[in-house]
Specification:
Elements: H1 16-24, E1 29-32, H2 35-45, H3 53-63, H4 75-79, E2 88-91, H5 95-106, H6 110-113, H7 119-135, H8 139-148, H9 150-155
Parallel strand pairs: 1-2
Length: 165
């Protein structure tokens, strides 16, 4: 199975027994982030291209899930958590804690490898940003976003997400 190690080869290019053998031979780690926080980060990275967060969100909603950018496409459609048996799911904002656990489980030295994360500050900052940005949206946009990300909100525990309220 030399072609397994070719980075250009996508999983969909293999037959079912090959996929099962391949997935069974790797430790599968999925990094996830609250979909609303992903939207905020994408908006902030592209500041100036849209006049307001509300208009950016409307563009996202108008695009729909099939034509969505990878930056804001629902995670469930990108990583297929119902089909791929992930060994670990690491949530943004808890990197230090979760990566430390993962490294210990794999037998790697934690302190010498793990960079310094400021998870508490990241969570506080995104909570504050979320409050500000969410207040810019109409009630209809809020409901549409919750619907847009409904499968992510169901598949993963994004407790405290503004979209789950």
């Amino acid at each position: 199975y030399r072609r397994w190690h070719t980075k250009e080869t996508q999983l969909s290019k293999f037959n079912q027994p090959e996929i099962e053998a391949m997935l069974g031979s790797y430790t599968k780690v999925l990094f996830i982030r609250d979909p609303f926080q992903r939207l905020i980060a994408t908006f902030l990275q592209g500041m100036g291209s849209r006049p307001s967060f509300s208009s950016f969100v409307q563009d996202v909603l108008d695009t729909g899930t099939h034509n969505a950018s990878v930056a804001w496409k629902p995670l469930v459609s990108l990583c297929q958590p119902c089909l791929v048996p992930y060994d670990y799911v690491v949530m943004f904002g808890f990197h230090r804690e979760e990566l430390g656990h993962l490294l210990r489980r794999t037998g790697l030295p934690v302190e010498s490898i793990l960079p310094e994360f400021t998870d508490t500050q990241v969570r506080w900052t995104y909570r504050w940003l979320s409050e500000q940005m969410f207040s810019e949206l109409s009630v209809q946009q809020q409901k549409q976003l919750s619907h847009f990300y409904r499968w992510d909100l169901t598949a993963f525990s994004f407790s405290g997400s503004f979209l789950s309220d």
